[in-house]
Amino acid sequence: MVEGKDECNFFSEIVEKERLLIQIEDYKGKANLKNYLESLKKRTGHETITSIGIEQDADNDPDAAYDSICHALKSASYPGPDQEKKNRNEIKVTILIIPDRDKKGMLEDICLSSIKDDPHMSCVEAYMNCIREKTDNFHDLHINQAKTKIRSFLISREIIESAVYEKLQKAIQEYEWPENIASAKIHSFIASKPKPYLELGSAIKAGYFDLNHRAFEKIISFLKKL
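Request: output the structure for the sequence above.
Response:
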């Protein structure tokens, strides 16, 4: 079970690549996990499920992400993570916090690790620095392709809107940039590719990220243990 559409595409691609017999489903956001688990119990064939893996981004608090999954499991009367089976019919539950159990971040951070040596990343970093310096002068940015201009503009909005927009309107010089801008960097990287409009999940399917990179080893290992 994965948190969203991008994660669904990402994990599905790995499952296909590794030829694993695993069904990937999107539980449509952290807040919906409990409802998803409860509805899963009502499905025909639920009794045949032997193992469940639940993925979630750590975001700014990996402990809170882990605890929220545990709470959803308990509320829906599922066993806790890595709990020893009381009988052979009980479901094994495993939790994967991305990028790691003790790290802040998201799927985009792992993807960034896999492309850090890509020649386009120096351009992405330069772009991000430029955005920091010229947030109030988007018209001064000079990018060639029209689609890339649109994507780059959306990226700049993504950065701005991740903090208090009202504060930015009052005093642009006092604006505090968020610590984690991995998502914006990922979209900047995708903007350098032939299809700059793709979302992360679709970009993974298009082959823009090397799933053999060591950055994805933990995720692959997690899936193989299910």
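The two ends are 11 Å apart (CA to CA).
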